[in-house]
Amino acid sequence: MACHKEAMAHREADHKETMERHKEAMAHREADHKETMERHKEAMAHREADHKETMERHKEAMAHREADHKETMERHRETMSSLTAMREEDKRRHEERLEEIKHRDEEWRADLARRDEEMREFNREILLRNEKVYTSVLAEIEESRKQLRANTQAVLSVLDRLDRRDAA
């Protein structure tokens, strides 16, 4: 039993030593954990500060973008307004040109009709003159034809008499 007591005492001493080492290890771990937690808190504070700074920069960037967007939209509205005015002006000018072309076409058609009428009148006058001239010329030709027939008859009659005389 003495051996048992001695073994128990040895185990008790080992256990105390183990418990002492365990306490020391736990104390080190506790100190390491506190140090780690402090570093973690510091890192989180830095991250929070960085996050706040990033969020501020983001807000500023968004404000600038919003201002730029508003400016761009205003320029777009001005451009669209200008384009609309230009389209309306082009449409008005186009309509004016169409009216001018229509007016010129009407004037041209009226001038053409006037010239056609003048040409018809000129042709009538020429035809009347020709009719007067040709009527007298035709009458003279008819008279000359009759004269030519009579002369031809007279010549043929003389030739017939001469032929009868020569045959007799």
What this model shows, in words?
The protein is mostly helical and 168 residues long. It has one helix and no strands. The protein is rod-shaped. It starts with a helix and ends with a helix. The model has no long low-confidence stretch (mean pLDDT 91).
Count the helices. How many?
1
Query: What helical percentage do the residues reach?
Result: over 70%
Work out the strand percent.
Answer: under 5%
pLDDT averaged over residues? 91
Largest sheet: none
Number of strands: 0
Q: H/E element string?
A: H
Alpha carbon gap, first and last residue: 216 Å
List low-confidence stretches. none
Inertia-based shape = rod-shaped
Annotation keywords:
168 residues, mainly alpha
Secondary structure: elements and pairs:
Blueprint: H1 2-167
Write a brief structural summary.
The chain has 168 residues and is mostly helical.
